[in-house]
Structure formats: C-alpha cells, structure tokens
Amino acid sequence: MAGLTIRNLVKRYGDVQVMHGVDLDIEDGEFVVFVGPSGCGKSTLLRMIAGLEEISDGTVSIGDREVNDVAPSKRGVAMVFQTYALYPHMTVYENMAFGLRQAKTPKDEIDRRVTSAAEVLQINDYLERSPRNLSGGQRQRVAIGRAIVRDPEVFLFDEPLSNLDASLRVQTRLEIARLHERLKSTMIYVTHDQVEAMTLADKIVVLRDGRVEQVGSPIELYERPANSFVAQFIGSPQMNFFTGGDVATGPAGYVDGDTLGIRPEHLIACDAGAALVSGKLELVEQLGEYALAHLITAQGSEFIAKMEKPPAEAYGDTLHFTAIPERLHVFSPDGLSKRG
Amino acid sequence: MNPTLVRWLQAPSIFVLLLWMIVPLSMTVYFSTIRYNLLYPERTGFIGLDNYRFFATDPSFGPALINTLILVGSVLVITIVLGLAISILIDRPFRGRGIARVMLISPFFIMPTVSALVWKNMLMDPNNGLFAAFSQALGLQPVEWLAQYPLFSIIVMVSWQWTPFAILIFMTSLQSQDQEQKEAATLDGAGFWSQFWNLTLPHLARPISIVLLIQMIFHLSIFAEIFVTTSGGPGVSSTNLTYLIYIQSQQAFDVGVASAGGVFAIILANIVALFLIRAVGKTLTV
Ligand SMILES: Nc1ncnc2c1ncn2[C@@H]1O[C@H](COP(=O)(O)OP(=O)(O)OP(=O)(O)O)[C@@H](O)[C@H]1O
Ligand SMILES: [Mg+2]
Fold first, then answer.
1. CA distances (Å), B26 to each of A248, B19, B31, in order?
2. Domain B13-285 carries which CATH code?
C-alpha cells in the first residue's frame, strides 16, 4: 500500500497545454475523488498516474518511488475503465486471470485469487461466461474484479458508474465504498456526479482547465469553498450568487463589487424588514420531501430557495429571505472567498 | 413485413442468380460427358466419364494439381502475414499516413495482365529488368526469374497484387478495435505480442477468414499472370489447373476434356472451401 505524490505535473499535446502544473498529495489508503467540468483534465490526470499518458513535465511518485519512467504494469496501479474494457474473447475467469498470467503467477495462486475476488463481488456463478453474455452491472463487477486480483497499491476508477442505470449506480456506489473499507487501499475516482463525490470521498480534488482549484474533505468544500467556482460546483442545487443591489445589507466585510453566495438550503423565509434578499416567485418545484422555489430579484438575478413545503404565496408575489451569518459566503471580484 | 411477401419479393433476384449459375454449370457438366473436339466435329456422342479419365491421366494433371495447391497456399500465407504486419504498422498515426495507405492499396487496382507485364518486362527480365540491374551492380550473374523459378515468380506477382486487399480489410477492421481494451492489457502487463495474440488476432478472426475465402476463390483460377509471363512453362513447372484446362480447350481443341477439367476444378474449389470454412468456422460465429 502506498500514498501518492504529484509535483508540478504538466501535460501538453503538441502546442496545447492541458495540465498546468498540478501538485497533489494523496495519503496511503485515502479515497480521493477528482471532480470538475467536462474537459478539465480529470481523465488525463488519472491516465498520467496509470502511465497510459506520457508526462510532459513534473513527477508522479507512488509510495517513495518516482514512477515517471516505470512501465504502467509495474507501477502497482489497476484501472477500471468507463467502458469496462473487458477482453471480449476471454471468459470472465480468463479476464480476471490475464494480468496474473502475464506476470507468470503459478496456476493455483491465480485460481485462489480469482476465486476469492469473484466471491467478494458475487460473480462466481459467471466465471465461465463470456463478457458478451453479462449485464452492464455484471460487467462492471468483472472489471472491478480484474483490478482486485492484481492486488494493486492504488486503484484508479474513471467514471465507473456512468454507464449504469440509476438504481444500479446507487448499489454499486455502496459496494465500492464497502470495498474500500475492506481493502483499505488508496483509491482515486473520477466522476461527474456530486453525490458520488460527496459520499465516497475522503478528499475531493476540484479541477478546472488543468489546474487544481481546491482540495479538501467533502464537508470542507461544502462549508468553506475557496472560490466561487468551487462554491457553485459543490452542492446541489447550486449556490445562489447575489451582487450589488440584490443585497439589502451585506454582512461584515461585504463591500460594493463583491458577490454574496448563499446555498438554496440556507435561505430562511422572513419578513420584509429582516430581509437579506428578496425575489419575485416564478415557479415552484414540488419534490415531496422538500420544494424548490425559483425566484428572481428586482435587478433580475435568478435564485433558488429550498423550502420544507411550498410557499403559500402566488406566482408573482415577492418573498423575503435571510440566512445566518456563518452560512454566508463573500467572494471578492476575482472570485476568491473572503473567508480565507 | 409479412414473411411470404418477403419471399415473393426476393424470388425474382434469386431466380436470376440461379439461372446465371445453373446454365453454364449444367452446360459444362453436359459437355464433359460427350465427345466434343473442335478438330473432329464428326465424332460426337455420350462417353460417360471418359473425358474425366483423359483429364486425370494426362501427364500434366498431377503437376498442375500440385502447382495449384502450392500457388494458392503460398499466396494465402504471404498475403495474410504481410497484410497483418503492414496494417498493424500503419494503424498508428504518423506523418503522411493517408498517402502511404493509398500507395499500399494501389497495386490492387492494377489489372493482373498489366501487373504481370510490368513484373515480366521491367523487373524480372534478365537483360533489361531492374533486378538484373541490381545483380549486375553487385557483380552477380542476373537471375532468369521466369525460367529458373517460374512458380515462385508467379507467387510473388500474385502476392504483390493481393496483399493490398488484405491490408485494406485488416486496416478498416483494426480501426474498430477498442483502444481501452489495449490500455487495460497494457496495465495488465501484456506487451506487444501478448496483445497481438490475445486481443488483435481474435478481433481480426472474421476479416482473416473473409480474406482467406475470397482470395482462395480467385487464386484457384489464376490465369492472366501465367498466360502473360511463363505460359505454364518451362515444361509444366508453372501450369495450374486453369492453365491446363486452357491448353486442353484452346490448344488441343478438346472441349469435352476441358469441361471435365472445369468440373474437376469446381469440385476442388468446394473441397478446399469446405476445409477452410471448417477451420475458421469456430471464429466465424464470434
Ligand atoms: N489526444 C489529445 N490531443 C489533444 N488534446 C487532448 C487529447 N486528449 C485530451 N485532450 C484535451 O485535454 C483536455 C482534458 O481532457 P480529459 O479527457 O482529461 O477531460 P475530462 O476532465 O476527463 O473530461 P470528461 O469529464 O468529459 O471525461 C480536454 O480539453 C481535451 O480536449
Ligand atoms: Mg474523462
């Protein structure tokens, strides 16, 4: 088992630079999730760790060993691909045994490891089947099983659940969490999905345009986003942003030109007198457990309030909201949080 | 759609195809059982299997059969191996790949007669050919390719023409290969050859069998190359079955024996095809 150290990692495709000096420390046994908008370089970063993508500059170390020039198969990493990438002409058993065979592992050792991985993942009934005859969820398990049998120091997952349907995704997410609990290996996981990131991660890395925007535990990122990008990326529905005339009286430190951020779930309905922000009710989405009120301020900024039950007011009426000071986020014009 | 209607709609084309096949086939079979020599038009009548006996006991028959099998077999092996190697080589992106591909494919669009003439007069000619010039530059005696190694020379020409066909088919098929599978194999520690045997070759199983079958059909009836270059000689050393049938009908004017040879060639083609389909049949179901 080993942690991971990334220093000043740069990736260029010809003249185009897509990673701009990434620094990252990952502890041994940590579950790290990379999030960020499409095209920000999550997969590229993961593939550079795996050795599938050449490193233009900087270093990747696994444990104490710099692996820049180490062959992918010798880095102690195993990867689960989004498309599963199972070998179509081999049975499930052969798929899982392939890596061990390449390493000339003795037959009974292979057998033992494949069988035990198959038991963990409950795929022992399909071992002789071809991947073609498996469902998406079963294929996903085989792909994970193929990674497990190699007993890697670091697991890499690139959006492993994105091809599964919603209920299977929830179930597999739980299984991956359980797997991490059991194996205690370092895992790096790329996803688009908020919920996956928040529930699985010990540490979330938010990327944008090949740069790390913020690293921290899910709750840190939620409560203390370093800038407005992270603030709107973490949390669903997104954080509301108010500027200038939207805000009746800003909190301490709020000056003209700053942006005030309040999460929809932190807006509290109040009287006109106590109001921090006010808006005209445009639409209400009733979700049973809670309701989302879509509003628009006098100067035209849209925002959402998450409420326990739908407001009694009619569309077009004005609603008033406040929030407790600890829940307010103030961002200076360059987007950085003033809370430090 | 209604299956009966489908069948009726298909019927005309199937009927035309059947007619297209059945008429020449039955005429060949008919001619092969009668006395039919253009030099002796008065000798006619049914003679059973005598034409077959004549054809099969012709002293040229054995060598022609062996030459045919050597020719087909070697060309198949050469084109498949070369086709695989070259198509894998040009699968990676590199500068000028488009042009390289077009040039690699182009021999396939040259008429067999023309290509045979080029090989005969410009490359293999012992006086004016390019190979002779090379030999002379090295101070060696020029090789008389067509006289000394006639069958080998024909194999080279046909392989040169047909390797592009294999490249074309394999190249397109390689592009549909899943790259992530290869990356997964790389992470599993599989090198180039292990990936080739475990992923690429199984992926190409179907295209390989298609190339095998199509080429076999064409190579059993190679004619132009032999006609233009060696005329089956020296002796019968480069005579194949097609050429032997040609000699029977156009030089000995014996249509009956030639037809018997034709029927024999059809039977041979079917036997070879049966073996090949058996051999690759398992992979065809993938
Ligand atoms: N082979 C390549 N040549 C040039 N640019 C590339 C290449 N591969 C990726 N890129 C660029 O690198 C950037 C990062 O791509 P990457 O696939 O890592 O994004 P991602 O964060 O995984 O996105 P997604 O969430 O859509 O999977 C993108 O802007 C992409 O256009
Ligand atoms: Mg990606």
1. 99, 10, 9
2. 1.10.3720.10
Taking the C-alpha atoms of residue A294 and residue B245, their distance in angstroms, rounded to an integer, is 88
pLDDT, tens only, A236-288: 889 999 988 888 777 777 888 889 999 999 999 998 888 889 999 999 999 98
Residues 34-73 of A with CB under 8 A from B: 50-52, 71-73
Contacts 24+ apart (CB under 8 A), B86-89: B86/B163, B86/B167, B87/B166, B87/B167, B87/B170, B87/B171, B87/B174, B88/B170, B88/B174, B88/B196, B88/B200
| pLDDT for res B1 | 65
Q: Which atom of ligand 1 is nearest to the CA of A45?
A: 18
User: Is residue B31 within 8 Å of residue B245, measured between CB atoms?
Assistant: no
Amino acid at B182: K
CA–CA gap between residue B245 and residue B258 (Å, rounded): 5
CA distance A231 to A195: 15
Question: B178 with A85: CB under 8 angstroms?
Answer: yes
Where are the alpha helices (H) located in chain B, listed in sequence order?
A: 3-31, 50-57, 61-89, 97-105, 112-117, 130-137, 145-148, 150-175, 179-187, 192-195, 201-203, 205-219, 224-228, 241-246, 255-284
The count of C-alpha atoms lying within 13 angstroms of the C-alpha of B82, restricted to the half-sphere facing its C-beta, is: 18
Q: Report, in angstroms and rounded to the nearest whole number, the Rg of chain A calculated over CA atoms.
A: 24
Least CB–CB distance from A103: residue in B184, B189, B202? B189
Tell me what the mean pLDDT of segment A49-68 comes to: 91
C-alpha span between B186 and B184 (Å, rounded): 5
Nearest Cα to A175, choosing from A217, A128, A138? A138
The span from the CA of B72 to the CA of B100, in Å, is 28
B39 phi and psi, to 5 degrees? Answer: -80, -25
CA distance to A228, A261, A321, A336, B62, per residue, from A258 (Å): 11, 10, 19, 10, 97
What is this model's ipTM? Answer: 0.84
Residues 6+ apart with CB under 8 A from A295: A279, A280, A281, A282, A302, A303, A304, A305, A319
DSSP at B141: P
On the question of pLDDT at B26 being above 50, the answer is yes
User: What token pair was written down for A65?
Assistant: 């060993």
C-alpha A145 chain-centroid distance: 22
Taking CA atoms, what residue in A is nearest to B190?
Answer: A102
Tokens 């986003």 sit on residue? A225
Chosen for mutation from B179, B183, B188, B282 (greatest number of chain A CBs closer than 10 Å) is B188
The C-alpha atoms of residue B101 and residue B164 are separated, in whole angstroms, by 9
**Domains contained in chain A, CATH given:** 4-232 (3.40.50.300), 238-331 (2.40.50.140)
Which residues surround the ion ligand 2 when the cut-off is CB under 5 Å?
A 43
Q: Which helix (H) or strand (E) holds A143?
A: helix A136-149
What is the pLDDT at residue A340?
Answer: 54
Say whether B184 and A89 touch across the interface (CB within 8 A).
no
